[in-house]
Amino acid sequence: MSTTPTLSSLNADTETYPLLTKALIDQLRQYATLRRVESGEVLYRSGDLAVPLYILLSATVEIVQPDTEGERAITILYPGMFTGETRIIGGQRAIVLARVVQSGDILTVRSEDIWTLATRNAQLSEILLRAFILRRTMLNIRQLGNVVMVGSQHSANTARLREFLGRNSHPYTYLDLDTDDGSQDLLDRFTISSAEIPIVICNGKAILRNPTPRELADCLGLNDDLRQNLLRDLIIVGGGPAGLATAVYAASEGLAPLLIESHAPGGQAGASSRIENYLGFPTGISGQELASNAATQARKFGTTIAVARKIVQLNCKRRPYELVMDDGSVLFAKTVVIATGACYKKPAVPDLARLEGHGIHYGATYIEAQMCVGEDVVVVGGGNSAGQAAVFLSQTASKVYMLVRSKDLTKTMSRYLIERINANPSIELLCETELTRLAGDESLSEVCWANKKTSQTFTLPSRHVFVMAGASPNTVWLQGCVALDDKGFILTGHNLPLCVPRGSSPVWPLTRAPQLLESSLPGVFAIGDVRAGSVKRVASAVGEGAIAVSLVHRVLAELY
Ligand SMILES: Cc1cc2nc3c(=O)[nH]c(=O)nc-3n(C[C@H](O)[C@H](O)[C@H](O)COP(=O)(O)OP(=O)(O)OC[C@H]3O[C@@H](n4cnc5c(N)ncnc54)[C@H](O)[C@@H]3O)c2cc1C
């Protein structure tokens, strides 16, 4: 075996491909079997399921990515190193090929034992996880995934699929029809017309023409592990910060939760370019990084995560509860945590999504206020949150323009706020006015609006627009199963109607009082932005996820 550096001397490169010490390899042996491998033997291929972890004792292994041209080299692993990247943790399908180039001995840890190893041995867990995450990042940066996408920067479906793969941290090679010379050749070779883009070549074999995210997820085997007949202790609906936190705490405490996410892990936070106010990240963290790390952490403890799968109905007449997925299949759960969040109502203005995080804000905290010192800013919306934002921002901004669609604020805003706005010379209230255009290359630079009555338009050079037009909760799928407030958010705990029904709203049915985050349906909890009265922050969503798990334990104890 080559000379082994001390662990303390590891740098970023050696953390990606670290050499394990003899002592660490000895600790691994109890989870592993020893075998000899011969040169040329393929240990696993892209698309293989539940791939073991291989620790090389005297063999050497090359890692390559097969593609339409042949193979692209990724790295060579020498004795003392180990195979794998993040997908190995949840037993998901491999995305690269591993082939022995020099015969020798290896240790094999079965897929189902990797989790046991990771939970029992903290030092090994840290080294393995760090290497897996760094390797995945490297594959992403070098576009060395098992997916080739041919698309166009002018195609909305291409953008949608790229966003889906990016949000799922899935490495892929992208060829743009407008700028990459080889892309047309590739389409010709597979006799595909450019009208069918985006084209996705999955594992070098299957060719998908303009697939949905779900078709792509299925092709990549992202959702293999949905054993439907199983009665589960806990199903989490929604994979934003609240759902992911529930998954981490539930799985680390011995429950084996299933998390169903209709798009990709991260929710609204996953779309944020930088979260500056989340505890422990003084320089901020991108929503994508936070979500991807949280998903890896949840999988490490044993959570199964399904992406691009939506829950469309809850059957709540009897227990166990039944959750119906978008393909009609049914999942069974003793307890359910609803973490489906909310969608901010967004004005239908071109470029809004592109400029999110680059001048378009959905919250006005101290951080945003500091960005606006001495500047002209725009607040869109006529509710209390818009009013509070305008008053708050007026303390630092030079001027706040408030765009309100209705004739006045009386029906939508508290009286005290209306008075403050009217008395504030730094706020200009513009009723019957709509945002019409946003401009800016990398970030917002210009904002346009129009008066609906006079059609008069106005253009303001500005770097900040605050969209405070309210949020709609993702609760339509609950169809009368749980009590909601008048805006559709889920009522929980002491806010529930206890005995007197409000209209057709369900009431709490048991003699015991509902728990803190429990909905009107016993054993069904609501957390994060979907809950009535929630704070709409990443930290509070995460905190509620942790609390919900302790409440789930109590309900499960009641059932036995
Ligand atoms: C652009 C932006 C920037 C932000 N910046 C900050 C910030 O800097 N700091 C901060 O504290 N907060 C910030 N927020 C607010 C913060 O992101 C939210 O409060 C937080 O994400 C709420 O988490 P959640 O898990 O409750 O809901 P969400 O993040 O909304 O996640 C809900 C998830 O459920 C999924 N889902 C919905 N319906 C279904 C269904 N039927 N079946 C399966 N899955 C479903 C959705 O796809 C989504 O992934 C920001 C929000 C936005 C939009």
Q: Care to describe what's here?
A:
β16 and β17 (330-338) form a beta hairpin. This protein has 4 domains: 7-141, Jelly Rolls (Sandwich), CATH 2.60.120.10; 147-219, Glutaredoxin; 231-343 and 476-559, FAD/NAD(P)-binding domain; 352-467, FAD/NAD(P)-binding domain (3-Layer(bba) Sandwich), CATH 3.50.50. Strands 12, 13, 14, 15, 16, 17 and 28 form a 7-stranded mixed beta sheet that branches. It is an alpha/beta fold and 560 residues long. One of its GO terms (molecular function) is oxidoreductase activity. Keywords: Flavoprotein, Oxidoreductase. This is Cyclic nucleotide-regulated FAD-dependent pyridine nucleotide-disulphide oxidoreductase.
Q: Which distinct ligands sit in these coordinates?
A: flavin-adenine dinucleotide
Mean pLDDT reading = 90
How far is the N terminus from the C terminus? 53 Å
Main sheet specs: 7 strands, mixed
Q: What count of helical segments does DSSP give? A: 15
Which range best describes the helical content: under 10%, 10-25%, 25-40%, 40-55%, 55-70% or over 70%? 25-40%
Topology of this protein?
Elements: H1 12-16, H2 22-28, E1 32-37, E2 42-44, E3 53-56, E4 60-67, E5 70-77, E6 97-102, E7 104-109, H3 111-120, H4 122-141, E8 147-151, H5 156-167, E9 173-176, H6 181-189, E10 199-202, E11 206-209, H7 213-219, E12 231-237, H8 241-252, E13 258-260, H9 267-270, H10 287-301, E14 304-306, E15 311-315, E16 321-325, E17 330-338, E18 342-344, H11 352-355, E19 360-361, H12 366-371, E20 376-380, H13 384-393, E21 399-403, H14 415-423, E22 427-430, E23 433-439, E24 446-451, E25 457-461, E26 465-467, E27 471-473, E28 524-526, H15 538-559
Parallel strand pairs: 8-9, 12-13, 12-17, 13-14, 17-28, 19-26, 20-21, 20-26, 21-22
Antiparallel strand pairs: 1-7, 2-6, 3-7, 4-5, 4-6, 8-10, 10-11, 15-16, 16-17, 18-27, 23-24, 24-25
Helix pairs in contact: 3-4, 8-10, 8-15, 13-14
Flavin-adenine dinucleotide binds at residues 237-243, 260-263, 267-269, 271-272, 275-277, 310-311, 339-342, 344, 356-357, 362-363, 474, 477, 528-529, 536-539, 541.
Protein name: Cyclic nucleotide-regulated FAD-dependent pyridine nucleotide-disulphide oxidoreductase
Keywords: Flavoprotein, Oxidoreductase
Organism: Granulicella pectinivorans
